[in-house]
Amino acid sequence: MKILLCCGAGASTSLVAQCMMDSLPENEKGNYIINAITYDLFLDNYKNYDVVLLGPQIRYKKKALEKEAMADNIPVDVINSMDYALQNGAKIIEHAKQLYKKAHSA
């Protein structure tokens, strides 16, 4: 699964992306690509991913970014603030899995 994280400057989501990878068992790490970018690079990158997660600090961008990605059936959602602050990689990956499953179950 390819997961794209977007935030204002990219620094904090880069840390979250690393925590997400670190939370995976060694035998699953090859199944994931997790990258972090600034939201202004969204249009150039989102089509290469299965799920887009936004940092809580740019939750106000969700509607516009979601509108773009919906045409390509790529779910966009905001990372839970507590999971983001605590860098709970496992919970954030689970959130991405659920979004992907929901988008592709119809």
TrEMBL record:
Q: Where's the PTS EIIB type-3 domain?
A: 1-106
SUPFAM superfamilies linked to this entry: PTS system IIB component-like
Q: Record keywords: rRNA-binding included?
A: no
Q: Which GO terms describe its biological process?
A: phosphoenolpyruvate-dependent sugar phosphotransferase system
> Where is the secretion signal located?
1-17
One of this protein's Pfam families, by short name?
PTS_IIB
Q: Which UniProt keywords apply?
A: Kinase, Phosphoprotein, Phosphotransferase system, Signal, Sugar transport, Transferase, Transport
Q: Which molecular-function annotation in GO is an example for this chain?
A: protein-N(PI)-phosphohistidine-sugar phosphotransferase activity
Location of Phosphocysteine modifications: C7
Q: Which PANTHER family match?
A: PTS SYSTEM N,N'-DIACETYLCHITOBIOSE-SPECIFIC EIIB COMPONENT (PTHR34581:SF2)
This protein is called PTS sugar transporter subunit IIB
Which species expresses this protein natively?
Answer: Priestia megaterium
